[in-house]
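Quick question, first post here. What does this chain look like in 3D?
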Amino acid sequence: MSTTENQQPIIENNQSLEKDNNNINNNDETSKKRSLDETDNIEINKNKNFVNKKVRKEQKKQERKQQKKQKASNTDENKKENVEKKDDSQEETNNPNVDPNDYDEKKVIFKGKFKSWKKHSRLFATDEVVKGLLVCCDSMREANSIGEMLPLLNSFADKYFPKEEGEMKTEKVNSYYGTNEQKQEGTTDVEPSELKKRKRFELINSGCGGIYFISIPIENVDPIDFMNCIFVDIYKRQMTKKNLSTDFIDNDIIKNFPESTRKMLENANQSIFIPDKVLNRVIFTSKVLPILRTFRASEVDMYPIMREVIKENFKNAQGKTFAIELRTRNNSSLDKNKVIKDVAEMVDPSIKVDLSNPDLVIVIEIIKSSVVTSVIPQYKKLFKLNLREVIKCELDKKPTQSKQQLKEEKKQQLIKKQEQYLKEKEEKEKEQKQEDKNETDKNIQIENK
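> Answer (accepted):
Ran it through. Tokens below.
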């Protein structure tokens, strides 16, 4: 019994081992099949992706070809439209009823940086006398300010600029807008060199941020007269809107202007109406200073030109007052205090200094390597030639007065106060005397009773 019993568990163990081996073999076979299937699937997917890439490349090539064809067709259409527009513009110029000075306001608006400047050296490196306007604006807003100023100046130029018969009339919008100069019928042919001189306005880079220069190459136009007329016109318009009288402008400001500005106001073309849109557009521009001369920033060039400017503008200045305003930007070669002293010595000593409300102001702007000067009358009464303030026209503010006028007003006020005080004293004394009399009379009556 013992041998048989020992053999049975051995047999059972052998059978279990065989089963385990069979199971292991089966698992190996299944894993091999799975691996083969997976490799087959990977190869199939690779082939599919390769095919899809080829198809995508072909599709992209076709799309690119279609886009090129569309662009070519669009360019051809644009060329045809531009040719038609040119033909229409030529027909309009040939029409005698069309005014060549008309322009589109959309062309005047600029965005970003304005790059079509003339160089800064134009202000000092030329033999020609450069005159015009120095415009101050907000920083990084030069392009927007140009879009505000040029339509305003062109509209007022139609009203105040002198018109000569038989002269070529140029467009309002100058060469920076891409338009060509046109001529009316009945005028003679003129060389292009002469046409450049007849442009109304040219833009010059000042070499400093927030400032640019607009030159006026027309010889017959004085920038001081032109700006005085603009500010007086705007000031009167704002006063009439608020139903206020303009006697102050006629009596105090226009009478003190030189004769040339009065003639320009008298000879103005009153038939031209300037819309309010032109004025309401002014947002970024502040000061507009008329300039008579420009030169290099050096004492050698500065003093002789300043003597000429002062002699021309201080001929009939006896009994008037003056002041000097000097500003320097991006320059340290000239001493500010020294320049002010030297320029003040050039003026006739009979003409006194008044810093509060002068009749004439000598403006000197030193900008980088150039200097700009002018002599401006009625500077502070016209809001220091600030466009934004004139358009707002804050009439609650009283006009500035000189020191002598303020002293006289204070003396008169003191005299009036003294007179009132003396009158009040006399009245009080009379009342006291009457009260004393009444009391004495009462006392006498009581004693008699």
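Residues 2-94 form the longest helix (93 residues).
The chain is about 50% helix and 10% strand.
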